[in-house]
Amino acid sequence: MVEGQNQQSREEKATEFQGGDVLLLDSTNAISDGDTSATANETATTADGDWAISNDNTAGTTTLENSADINFGQTGDFVIAQILVESSSTSGNYLIDDNPTGDTDLSGDGEFTIQANNLTYTLGSE
User: Which one in 42, 77, 90, 121 has a CA-CA gap of 20 to 30 Å to 57?
Assistant: First the structure.
């Protein structure tokens, strides 16, 4: 999406997603790159201060990472296939994590929280 961009343009793109809604989707609701609408199984709203942006100019990357817990409260019974962050300024513009790790099986009656520093999106070369 932003490979080859300089630090300033990668950081501007990452900043667009600070404060965006975080969506949990199951495999039935999963979307493809370029889709502009998503049906979330669960959604949590974040604030700008809930995210940190860092740059690695040697690798040509910029990282957006949650610096605060993201609490979804009581969740439904599903398995997370994707975690999306929707742009806070452009509805329908998403960062997509197609390979979530950790406890992605939400069958049960508990609350679900993504702990701080556990949701990371890397923009640029890999």
Answer: 90
- Contacts of 58 by beta carbon, 8 Å cutoff, 6+ apart: none
Q: What are phi and psi of 33, to 5 degrees?
A: -55, 130
Distance CA 65, CA 54 (A): 8
Q: Where are the domains of the chain?
A: 7-124
What does DSSP assign to residue 109?
A: S
- Please list the pLDDT of the chain residue by residue as tens digits (126 residues): 445 568 888 999 999 999 999 999 999 999 999 999 999 999 999 999 999 999 998 888 999 999 999 999 999 899 999 999 999 999 999 999 998 987 788 887 788 999 999 999 999 875
pTM of the entire structure?
A: 0.89
Task: Indicate the Cα dihedral angle 41, 80, 38, 65, nearest 10°.
Answer: 110
